Amino acid sequence: MTATVDSPRSTPSRAHVATLPVLVYGTLRRHGGANSRLFTGRATYGETIRVEGYRLLSNGHFPYAIPTPGSEITVEVVHLSQERRGETIGRLDALEGYREDAPECSLYTREIVSWNASDGMLRSGFMYVPSASTIERIMRDDLTEIPSGDWLSALTP
Q1: Which domains does the chain have, with CATH numbers?
Q2: Is the pTM for the entire model greater than 0.85?
Q3: What is the DSSP secondary structure assignment for residue 96, as one 8-state letter?
């Protein structure tokens, strides 16, 4: 399954993302790193899909999903528990350095992504991607591209 970005880099509100699953591509993935503990008791992992329009760059500790036409990355769909959804989104925002009151000052922003699920239905979720200022900064760093677009493959020697 391949997903696509819904709109040209729009930032959805917390109320909008509160109804959607989150798509994770790095240390929040199951077996992707310590940050996946954030979902313990708060979410369940769903299917693994490919998302078009991004490539993964790594600083050696975690990846960045950089908008890149013609590329794709592997993400996991995470379904947040209804009763702890607001709290979990708050923790995700804090982890990703996202400020809803000033997305332009955030380290990461949220994007809506749609995909055709295994049941044939069109689904949508949100994903944290580096903000424009973060992309500008990290492109000056010595980052390694993950050719497969799959963070887990980069962790396996």
Answers
A1: 2-149 (3.10.490.10)
A2: yes
A3: H
